[in-house]
Design a protein that fits this description.
By secondary structure, this protein is an all-beta fold. It has strands at 9-14, 17-22, 38-46, 49-57, 65-67, 72-75, 81-87, 99-104, 107-112, 118-122, 128-136, 139-148. The strands form three sheets. The protein has a five-stranded mixed β-sheet, with no helix packed on it. It has a four-stranded antiparallel β-sheet with strand order 2-1-3-4, with no helix packed on it. A three-stranded antiparallel β-sheet has the order 5-7-10, with no helix packed on it. The radius of gyration is 28 Å and the shape is rod-shaped. The chain starts with 8 loop residues before the first strand and ends in a 27-residue tail after the last strand.
Length: 175
Amino acid sequence: MAAVGAGAAVNFTINGKTITAFTDAEGIAKVEITDVPGTYEVTTTYNNQTFKNSVIVNLNPSTCKIAENKDIKVDYDGGKYFSVKIVSADGKVAASGVSVKFTINGKSTTVKTDAKGIAKIKITDVPKKYTMTTTFNGNSVKNTVTVKQVLKDPQNQRQKGQRQKDNLQIEWQNL
C-alpha cells in the first residue's frame, strides 16, 4: 500500500456507527472510541480497501467519579458498612479494582472496588456523629456517619412466649 498523505478520508465503523476521520501530516487518521468498555470489531476503509481489527476499550479511571455516597445512621457494633460507588463520568459504567480512601475519626483505610464498582468500610467506631471523607482521584466527598447507642437487656433470658413479671433493669454500655 502506498503512503497516505494529509487530508485523506478514512472511514471507521465501530459498534455499528461509521465515523469519517482525515489523515494528518504523517498520514495517520484517529478516532476516539467513547463506547462502554469491552472488545469491539473495528472496520477501517480507505481507498476501497477494508481492514478489520479487534480493539479493547478500557475504562479510564481518571475520568471516574464518586457516586451513591449517603449519610448513614448505624447501631453501635451492628456490623454495618458505609459504601460508595465509583462510576464513569456519565454514571453508566462501574469502575472495578480501583483504590478508594475512607477517613473517619482520624483513621484512613484504602480499599479496592469490587466488580460492581462498590467500595465499603465497616463502621466500628463508638457512638457519636462522625464525618466520613471519601477520596478518589484527588476528589473528596464528605458524609455524616452517626453511630447510635444501643440499649441492652442483660436479663433477657426468658423463654419464647414467656411474660416478663419482674422489673426490667436497663444498663447503658458506654464503651
